[in-house]
Amino acid sequence: MVKLKFQNSIFSRLVITFLIIIIPLYCLEIYIYNSALRTVKSEISKSTVAQASFYLESLEKEIERIKILQYDCLNDEQLNKLAIRWKIMNEYEISQTLLQLKQRLVAIKNSSIYASDVNVHILPIEKTVSSNSGVDDIHINEYNDIFVPIGLKGAQIINYNDKLYLSTFQKSGGAARPLFIIDIELNQNALKQALAQFNTYTGSGSVLITPKNIIANKSEEDNTKFIQQILLSMKQKDNDGTVFASIEDKDYYVVHSNSSYLNMSLLRYFPQEYILKPIVNFKIWAWVFSVAAILIIIIYSLSTYKFMHQPLNELVKSFRKVENGDLKVSINHDSNNEFGYLYKCFNDMVKNLNMLIDQVYNQKILMQKAELKHLQSQINPHFLYNSFFMINTMARIGDENLVPFTKHLGEYFRFVTRNSMDNISLEEEINHAKVYTEIQLMRFSKRIQIHFGECPNMYKDLKVPRLILQPIIENAFEHGIEKKKNSGLLLVNFEGNERELRIIVEDNGCDITDDELENLQNLLENNEQEVETTGTLNIHRRIRLVFGEDSGLIISRSVIGGLKAVLKIVLQKGVENV
After folding, report:
1. What membrane topology is annotated for this entry (predicted)?
2. Closest by alpha carbon to 415, among 340, 367, 468?
């Protein structure tokens, strides 16, 4: 029986075809969704980065303007008089000059909200002038530590005591230290207020980062730790861009912009839920499309299964039942579609098949029985004449074995002549063959030996045609060992398993030639009905009629010198008794 695999069924092919059509459409939708999502994210990223970059550019311009005022102050006349000519100036002139310098510094401070204080440290007079606190003794530590490092480029912002300074100085010829230093303290509160403009969402924040300082608009105690976690989550901090970071089990959208001129970085962070609001609708429609696609696939599969696969499956199951020999199957239906027509034709086919098989089968059985009767009637009882001659001889000489001999002979002919049944158990057939060998042993007791094996128990009740084993043994006597003057040997053995039984009859006669053996083998293989039927061919045909074409006689030369006849009985599936 050929079983239909799932991948070979019409239902699976229809579903696969449908999937081949809809999956590319779904993939296209996913591609469009991802493309739109990337576009929106890209636009949001560009917008936020542009805002951060604009802020840094504005801050750069403001710092640059302050630096110009600072550089301009380096050439201030009052400042240079104090640094160079202070020795020839009296105290009044020095005081007036310091006052005018302070006013200049106050003007610089007031010119920008980012300037918190402007200081000038004048080394020759050991004074520090501040826009906030006026004139004081020089702040020597600040003077020594607020130098611009060698190689520092850009705005030259110095971090000193957690404060940010713009520092510049006036060189003094070959002196080791400059005559004066001008530093402008940047207003970190103003920077924080400027950063606050970016905090449009709850939980958002903005941070300015310098190499040694962090300026944030938020004042939480753990703000520095939080910002450090943001920095650790970023893979690239040197380039402008955006990154998604997960901090304390919450997702953030981080915008990063860098200023090489200020040597600062601006970080803006806000909860991801706010930044992704514009693309929520994209996700909703993507899920709607996905659910719709799944529902369409399910509905199509169920409808195809119900209206096509089930009717086809019912038809296939019915054909399999017919294939297994069940000719009583019938499909009940009330449909008027194409399957209804197929069901009706199937029922009519089974009905006609039943009728034809019944006719052909009955005819074949009658023909087989007629042929069996005919073949059994052809068995030549020439053994009868030899037996009568043996009785005559034994009676004349007064042989004491006459009584057992006639008893065995009576059992033998009673078995041969009864017609109560066509088939008998294998055990009865073997017992009959043993009776025959006992008779032959009485005739040739001094010249032959007979060894009879034991039949497997599972085959003793097997129904077989009568007279299939004894004629083979008789043939071995007649053509094999009967003419041997001594050392005649006849072996009868049984080999069997669950599938087949082999009855092996061997003798050590040597009269048969190779040509005769070949002719006998060809005769057994010839299926023509016109061939003259011998005793051996009689048994071969009867076994095949009952047990099938795989059974029958197999003739070969025995290893003990004579002929080897194997009676092969192959049991068909489900056949135990014939």
Report:
1. Multi-pass membrane protein
2. 468
Q: For residue 546, which amino acid is it? A: V
Q: Which residue has the tokens 């092919």?
A: 13
Among candidate residues 433, 408, 413, the one with its CA nearest the CA of residue 565:
433
* Ramachandran assignment for 149, one of left (phi > 0), alpha (psi -120 to 50 degrees), beta (any other): beta
The tens digit of pLDDT for each residue in 42-84 reads 777 777 778 878 888 888 888 888 888 888 888 888 888 887 8
Q: Which two tokens stand for residue 475?
A: 């043939």
Which of 370, 372, 366, 408 is CA-nearest to residue 387? 408
The model's pTM is 0.45
The residue behind tokens 């020759």 is 124
Cα 409 to Cα 434: distance, rounded to the nearest angstrom? 12
Is 202 in a helix, a strand, or coil? coil
Phi then psi for 528, rounded to 5 degrees?
A: -70, 135
Report how far residue 203's alpha carbon sits from residue 251's, in angstroms, rounded to the nearest whole number: 11
Do residues 165 and 185 touch, judged by C-beta distance below 8 A?
Answer: yes
E-state strands within 500-572? 500-507, 552-557, 563-570
Distance CA 553, CA 567 (A): 5
- Is there a common fold for 75-186 and 379-570? no
Q: Label the pairing between strands 488-496 and 448-452.
A: parallel
Residue spans of the domains in the chain: they are 75-186, 329-377, 379-570
Which CA distances in Å does 235 have to 50, 102, 241, 266?
20, 48, 11, 15
> 3-state DSSP: the chain helix, strand, coil percent, rounded to 5?
55, 20, 30
| Long-range contacts from 65-71, C-beta under 8 angstroms, 24+ separation | 65/111, 65/112, 66/108, 66/111, 66/112, 66/114, 66/115, 66/166, 66/184, 67/155, 67/156, 67/166, 67/168, 69/108, 69/111, 70/108, 70/166, 70/168, 70/182, 70/184, 71/168
Task: Please identify, in words, the CATH class of the domain defined by 379-570.
Answer: alpha beta
Report the CATH number of the 75-186 domain.
3.30.450
pLDDT digits (tens, 9 = 90+) for 205-241: 777 877 777 776 654 444 566 666 666 666 545 566 7
